[in-house]
Amino acid sequence: MHIYEGILAATPHGQEVLLAGTAAAVVGTAIGLYKMDHQRLPATAVLSSVFFVASLVQVPVPPTSVHLVLTGLMGLVLGWAAFPAVLVGLLLQTVFLSPMGVTTLGLNTLVMALPAVACHYLYRAAASCSRQQLVLFAGFAAGATAILLSALLSAGALMLAGKQFADIGRLFFWVHLPSALIEGSVTASVVVLLRKVRPEVLQAPLLSSPIEELCDG
């Protein structure tokens, strides 16, 4: 999901894309910090850590890598706070993982955090409802949508960097389609579990199983 160091910096248009991505990431992070509820700091820290740990299991597919990121879940739980959470996770990756770099930190933050925020507005209401089937759908849709939007943003960044990256950009998007299905399934399971055992994380009521709803009826 990441764009590696040195790829976009090789062309003038790529350098412009990096600068624009960094500026947008700064704005998004500022909004996230402004909107962050201090009571949500533990959840933000935990999800940032999960984001970093999940990224350690990578399948290299040049010019990117495929792995779980759980940004859809981050969006459902954190909203705009996903920006600082993703930034911290990527900063740790930059320190410990050689393919990452400082010049791509802003763009990669934007690529992963902006879809998370979009998923918050698209699926948060459905993820907080009382019907388990709808919660399951919202979780799957959030996980899959976040990956597809991130892949689309990354592909767009590569294409804007120069014609020589057009084929790579298209490949970048298509290789992430299987990841979207996996990410959606994992996110759906986690969201349903959170609604049953820790609903306060999603600021939603406790979710009853379909059998319990039938018995109560």
Characterise this structure.
- With 217 residues, the chain is mainly alpha-helical.
- The protein has a single domain (8-216), classed as Arp2/3 complex 21 kDa subunit ARPC3 (Orthogonal Bundle), CATH 1.10.1760.
- 70% of the residues lie in helices and 3% in strands.
- The chain contains 9 helices and 2 strands; from the N terminus they run ααββααααααα.
- The chain has helices at 12-35, 41-54, 71-78, 82-96, 105-127, 132-161, 166-174, 177-197, 210-216; strands spanning 59-61, 64-66.
- The protein has a two-stranded antiparallel ribbon with strand order 1-2.
- A hairpin with a 2-residue loop joins strand 1 (59-61) and strand 2.
- Helix 1 (12-35) packs across helix 4, helix 4 crosses helix 5 and helix 6 (132-161) packs antiparallel against helix 8.
- The radius of gyration is 18 Å and the shape is globular.
- It starts with 11 loop residues before the first helix and ends with a helix.
- Mean pLDDT is 85; it is low at 211-217.
Task: Please write out the topology.
Layout: H1 12-35, H2 41-54, E1 59-61, E2 64-66, H3 71-78, H4 82-96, H5 105-127, H6 132-161, H7 166-174, H8 177-197, H9 210-216
Antiparallel strand pairs: 1-2
Helix pairs in contact: 1-4, 1-5, 1-6, 2-3, 2-4, 3-5, 3-6, 4-5, 5-6, 6-7, 6-8
